[in-house]
Specification:
- With 294 residues, the protein is α+β, with helices and mostly antiparallel strands.
- Helix content is 48%, strand content 12%.
- The protein has 15 helices and 8 strands.
- Strands 1-2-6-5-4-3 form a 6-stranded antiparallel sheet. Strands 7-8 form a two-stranded antiparallel ribbon.
- It is globular, with a radius of gyration of 19 Å.
């Protein structure tokens, strides 16, 4: 990987495990806008960033070397060798195909509060609507940044009420957001403290929040706390796991989790993202008309 500061921004080259479309559209984040193929706007880390990928070159702009090293290097997990991870996971035939299909995926290191609220909003919701709701909340309580609004801090959002959240199109989820805000602002749960707790304890703490079940808690742990061993399981992951590993049989999520942890261990989170992107993009085992197993 080569990092060069130019008058346009930061140019990243010689990086063979980075595809901005796959990274942003694999279900792990929502504050992005596709401008055209390989060209995206991202709102994260109190910044608005554009990324344009053309062949081997990946341009981050507006961006200087200091911001790239202090913010975006970690955000895009650039210190992790994904070639090595894919090589290990590829011992499994299915993961070999899935990792090759989504070879440019990287797991983001997002801000925990925004990630938590975003995945609460994501429940039983389509991605365009999730993005709309998060955008509405940001516009109402967040700070202006260029032509966009930053996601609000807990301090700014904590005084919101059910009616104002409903006006942002949260639907039934406004009750969950309100409960989350009360627990965080009241000190019952500290996201900062969770960074120093073990994964099992952190998950139990997150699940004290109304509307935060196993899947949402796992997503927050994976995408903002760096707990790469967790295996968030939604309908797509359940389907693809049953399809490839359980002979197409209906399988409890607890059994799927046990299987994933035993099979992939500390790399289970990476396996989950490759499988999710692979299954959802190719519609593997979608609907009642099951595909014939390979």
């Amino acid at each position: 990987m080569k990092i060069t500061e130019t008058n346009k921004g930061i140019l990243l080259t010689e990086q063979n495990s980075f595809n901005i479309g796959q990274i942003l559209e694999c279900g792990q984040c929502f504050r992005f806008e596709r401008i055209e193929e390989g060209h995206y706007k991202i709102t994260a880390k109190n910044r608005v960033l554009y990324i344009k990928q053309d062949g081997d070159g990946i341009l981050f702009y507006p961006c200087n070397k200091e911001d790239f090293e202090n913010i975006w290097y970690n955000y895009f997990d650039l210190g992790t060798d994904y070639s090595e991870i894919k090589a290990v996971l590829s011992a499994d035939r299915v993961l070999k195909e899935a990792a090759a299909f989504g070879s440019g995926i990287r797991l983001l290191n997002q801000e925990p509060f925004e990630c938590l609220i975003s995945f609460i909003i994501s429940q039983n919701n389509r991605i365009p609507m999730i993005q709309k709701v998060i955008g509405n909340i940001s516009e109402r309580w967040g700070e202006k940044a260029g032509d966009d609004f930053l996601f609000p801090t807990l301090e700014r959002l904590k005084d919101s009420d059910g009616i104002s959240l409903m006006e942002c199109k949260t639907g039934f989820r406004h009750k969950y957001i309100t409960d989350c805000l009360e627990r965080l602002s009241g000190g019952e749960i500290s996201l900062e403290a969770l960074k120093n707790t073990d994964t099992v304890t952190a998950k139990k703490e997150l699940m004290k929040i109304k509307g935060v079940g196993s899947k949402v808690a796992d997503c927050v742990l994976l995408f903002s706390f760096g707990r790469r061993e967790v295996f968030p399981t939604d309908v797509w992951i359940k389907r693809v796991m049953e399809y490839f590993y359980f002979d197409g049989k209906e399988t409890p999520i607890k059994e799927i989790h046990s299987f994933a942890y035993e099979k992939w261990g500390s790399l289970a989170g990476y396996a989950q993202q490759y499988l999710f992107y692979y299954a959802r993009t190719l519609q593997i085992n979608a609907g009642k008309n099951k595909q014939k197993r390979k």
